[in-house]
Write a structure and sequence with these properties.
By secondary structure, this protein is low in regular secondary structure. Helix content is 3%, strand content 9%. α1 links the parallel β7 and β8. The radius of gyration is 18 Å and the shape is elongated.
Length: 223
């Protein structure tokens, strides 16, 4: 599959007040910062791609941008419902308070992304994604598809994972304290050294251990 550096939001008919401002000004992610060829730090305005600044903007429903590089992008409060971006690279981007509901982003890389307050429910599909070292507190993954996701070292405190599917997910060394797992399926998840203090579960939750172990780990049963 050909990997794309980016796409002008105007070419996707982005819903924004200034679509004509979509511009790849040559900023690329290097050394944990977005820089242009002259070494100046900045972002590509309204650009759907590497180091793009699309804060608060909206994508057309069901946009297809699979294989695109989004590294270092600003996507705070962006509305990307039903986005199809499989095998994309979102690493080191800021997705805080964005809306990924119904999105299909299988096999994508979200390493070290900030996504606190993200809304990714209505069966959003994150299967085979890399969520290592993600900071995603107070997020909403209700009914999300999280099969084979790598959560190693991630922070998802106080998040909603009701009815989510964690089939063979790697949750090692991640922090899910205070999160809601009612109805979720974690029966085959790897929870070695996972923090679950104050996490909620119910009789519909499928855990990889018995209720006694859940209590020992600090989980709270809601009948």
């Amino acid at each position: 599959m050909k990997t794309l550096i980016g796409i002008s939001l105007a070419s996707l008919a982005l819903s924004t007040a200034h679509p004509a401002l979509a511009d790849d000004q040559g900023y690329r992610f290097q050394g944990y910062q977005c820089k242009n060829p002259q070494g100046m730090i900045g972002f590509n305005p309204a650009f759907l791609g590497e180091c793009g600044n699309i804060m608060g903007m909206s994508f057309p429903n069901r946009s297809y941008v699979s294989g695109t590089h989004f590294m270092g992008s600003r996507m705070v409060r962006a509305d990307v419902q039903n986005l199809v971006a499989e095998n994309a690279d979102f690493s080191y981007s800021d997705l805080s308070q964005s809306n990924f509901s119904g999105a299909h982003v299988r096999g994508s890389n979200f390493e070290s992304v900030r996504m606190s307050g993200i809304k990714a429910n209505f069966r959003a599909d994150f299967q085979d994604c890399n969520f290592s070292r993600v900071y995603g507190t107070c997020s909403d993954f209700n009914m999300a598809q999280l099969r084979h996701v790598n959560f190693n070292g991630a922070n998802f405190q106080n998040s909603n994972f009701r009815d989510a599917d964690f089939y063979f997910a790697d949750m090692t060394f991640a922090d899910f304290s205070g999160s809601d797992f009612r109805g979720a399926d974690l029966v085959f998840a790897d929870i070695f050294a996972t923090t679950l203090t104050g996490a909620i579960y119910d009789s519909f939750t499928r855990l990889p251990f018995d209720r006694a172990e859940a209590t020992r780990l600090g989980m709270i049963f809601y009948p």
